[in-house]
Amino acid sequence: MTRLFRSLALALALGAPAIGFAPAIGFAATPEAAPVTALDAGIIASMKAGAAGASFQSRYATLDQVVRTSFNLPDITQNSVGFLWATLPPAQQQALEQVFEQFTVASYVSEFSSFAGEHFTLAPDEKDLGTKKIIETQLVPGDGSAPTELDYVVENGPAGWQITDVLLGGTISQVAVHASDFSSLVTSGDASQLITALKSKVAALSGGK
Asked: Beta strand 119-122 with 132-140: parallel, antiparallel or unpaired?
């Protein structure tokens, strides 16, 4: 399962064995970890649905609500665009938020499309990052091979605790990678190239659906 992170020009870092981690499903999550455990459960459900032959559209519809609730997508979109966000007309800001959500959900649905006994584990201790928290997780393959570390930065806001960044391999900021990828596609007052590029990526991920 590498296409999602390759699309962001990242190589997944494999974590150490999940010693000291608890199963994400059934684990008594704190309010800070709740959006992460909800996302993990949604991903596993999408994987099982894909293995059972569910369509891309049906898995997208199910995972869309989970992603929108778990992530603070407006903040992530703005931070991914950077300082030029304030220069964009409201119509383009709205279009970007919409297509970025579609891109995020389509990426998860496309990447996590089959199930072979995988499960997530959740570290019992949360790390402080100023007013934010880092929730550490690992995706453990069903064949017992080395897990993949996926850590989440969460922040408390009007909608409660939500994910504001993903740390791939525990260190690489997904928002920073977005910012690097998007920088050449946004100019002061104009994000039309980025909107078009994201729409194309959504179409490719979904097979035009």
From this structure: antiparallel
Q: pLDDT tens-digit profile of 114-165?
A: 999 999 999 988 999 999 999 999 999 999 899 989 999 999 999 999 999 9
CB atoms inside a 10 Å sphere around CB 9: 10
Cα 80 to Cα 49, 85, 99, 122, 179, distances in angstroms = 31, 9, 13, 26, 4
What structural domains does the chain harbor?
A: 3-206 (3.10.450.710)
Nearest to 104 by CA among 209, 182, 187, 8: 8
Closest of 118, 106, 114 to residue 54, by C-alpha: 114
For residue 101 the two structure tokens come to 């959500």
pTM for the structure as a whole: 0.86
10, 4 in Cβ contact below 8 A? no
CB 182 within 8 A of CB 87: no
- Residue with the two structure tokens 């996926």: 150
Lookup result for tokens 């579609």:
102
